[in-house]
Specification:
The chain is mainly beta and 101 residues long. The chain contains no helices and 10 strands. It is globular, with a radius of gyration of 12 Å.
Length: 101
């Protein structure tokens, strides 16, 4: 595994999403229900940054066509989405948040 630092804990409040570039990839970092999650930051339907979408109840809504993904699993939840997003393993060490990109 190659762990890449995404952010520090003080950069992300509960219920928020943060877009970062990590290992030359756009990554979205989420803090939900006391846990951190990381996914690809690009919608699989049409190019849009998911970090610019609406995040609620563990799902991110694409800002273009309102398709929703579950950030815990990457599962596409509704039309027009047909392809899941990639999820990355996340760990914390002190105040730092890392993902295996």
């Amino acid at each position: 595994m190659t762990w890449t630092k995404l952010a520090t804990k003080d950069e992300l409040a509960e219920g928020e999403v943060l877009g970062v570039n990590a290992a030359e990839k756009p990554v979205a970092l989420y803090f939900f229900d006391g846990e951190y999650f990381a996914t690809s930051n690009v919608c699989t339907h049409q190019f849009a940054l998911l970090s610019e979408g609406y995040f609620e109840d563990g799902c991110i809504e694409c800002p273009l066509h309102q398709g929703r993904f579950d950030v815990r699993t990457g599962k596409a939840m509704c039309a027009p989405l047909t392809e899941n997003i990639t999820c990355f393993p996340v760990k914390t060490d002190g105040d730092s948040i890392y993902a295996d990109i």
